[in-house]
Design goal:
Pfam family, one: SOS1_NGEF_PH
Strand content: 15-25%
Protein name: DH domain-containing protein
Keywords: Guanine-nucleotide releasing factor
Number of helices: 12
Helix content: 40-55%
Order of helices and strands: HHHHHHHHHHEEHEEEHEEE
Largest sheet: 8 strands, mixed
Distance between the termini: 69 Å
Length: 366
């Protein structure tokens, strides 16, 4: 309505100019300005509309593809187990799934690289990195997939699949390949960088290497995170995991029996600390017996300190100390203080809460 009004005023100005209005010299630039602004706004609106239409088009296509995947998962999950124990039953189940897979072409958008080009304007950077971040979820699910495979490896269905596809290796070998591949990317990029110094694209290679190293760290951290047991609550509510590592920890309490205080002062506990955006967790590492991922350690939750990004109870010095001790991650802990050097040892620092009623002395390895 405003644009229509502006264009109407411009037309009225043109009429006044045609009638040789005495303020003709003032009216003409205003008419030009009104039309210019209207054209600029119109162009911006058309661009925005086109962007929204492209986003809606992509969302509709993704929704159809997602629904197709959901239906496929339902079909696979509802295959009767006893049906797949015989070769005829396994063959029939396989044919049913293959018929469903044949319908995939209807829901195919295009390959992922083409999506990035076609819908680049409506993809945010996180989506654009639309491909490598999936490794984190894949590695987190690897223990479950190994457990399921041990239960189902003798099933005729999988043997029939392997025979039909003429695969020499079992499914478990292929499930392991993505875990192995994620570590190879960094080696490839480092080799490329070695021979690309001073060349065009070297900065892009360096950026790619930094990204893959970040993803590797996230994958490694997440594998430790899913091994935490005994925590009552949702770990995802604690925010992003910033750092994790093993430390020697002493505890001191103002209140309590004198002997207990003395023991706590001299005998360290081995604890694995998880620094999240909203909490610091103290866990006890437990070695597991078994093979593969079952041999990986687990972490029994013992204690936590709340962290709040909205509280400012610490002095600037304390914040700088936290930033220094946790390698640049500036977090603000509610009712928590920190002493950079404890007991005259630069490998120890203190974390304390409630006016030092409870003190944790943490020792790093170097």
């Amino acid at each position: 309505e405003l644009m229509d009004l502006a264009l109407s005023l411009a037309s009225e100005g043109d009429r006044l100019i045609e009638n040789s209005h005495y303020a003709e010299d003032c009216i003409r630039p205003k008419c030009i300005e009104l039309r210019g602004v209207c054209e600029e706004i119109g162009s911006t609106l058309r661009s925005k509309k086109n962007l929204l239409l492209r986003a809606m088009e992509l969302h509709h296509a993704l929704e159809k593809a997602f629904q197709w995947c959901e239906d496929g998962i339902f079909l696979l999950a509802n295959q009767p187990v006893d049906r797949c124990q015989s070769q005829d039953g396994a063959e029939a189940a396989l044919q049913e799934l293959e018929r469903y897979l044949d319908t995939a072409a209807v829901h195919t958008i295009t390959d992922r690289s083409a999506i990035c080009c076609q819908y680049e304007a409506v993809l945010n950077p996180q989506l654009g990195m639309k491909d490598l971040q999936i490794y984190e979820a894949y590695c987190q699910n690897k223990p479950r997939s190994e457990s399921l495979w041990r239960q189902c490896s003798d099933c005729a269905f999988f043997q029939e699949c392997q025979k039909k596809l003429e695969h020499k290796l079992g499914l478990d070998s292929y499930l392991l390949k993505p875990v192995q591949r994620i570590t190879k990317y960094q080696l490839l990029l480092k080799e490329l960088l070695k021979y690309s110094k001073g060349c065009d694209g070297a900065s892009d290679l360096q950026e790619a290497l930094s990204s893959i190293l970040g993803i590797l760290k996230a994958v490694n951290d997440s594998m430790h995170l899913i091994a935490i047991t005994g925590y009552e609550g949702n770990l995802s509510d604690l925010g992003r995991l910033l750092m994790q590592g093993s430390f020697s920890v002493w505890t001191e309490h103002k209140k309590g029996h004198a002997k207990v205080k003395d023991l706590a002062r001299f005998k360290p506990m081995q604890r694995h600390l998880f620094l999240h955006e909203k909490a610091l967790l103290f866990c006890k590492r437990r070695e597991e017996n078994g093979e593969g991922y079952e041999k990986a350690p687990s972490y029994s939750f013992k204690h936590s300190l709340s962290v709040s990004s909205s509280c400012c109870n610490l002095s600037t010095k304390s914040l700088l100390q936290i930033s220094y001790l946790f390698m640049g991650f500036v977090v603000q802990m509610s009712a928590v203080g920190i002493t950079e050097n404890a007991k005259g040892d630069n490998k120890k620092f203190e974390i304390w809460c409630n006016s030092r009623e409870e003190v944790f002395i943490v020792q790093v390895t170097n």
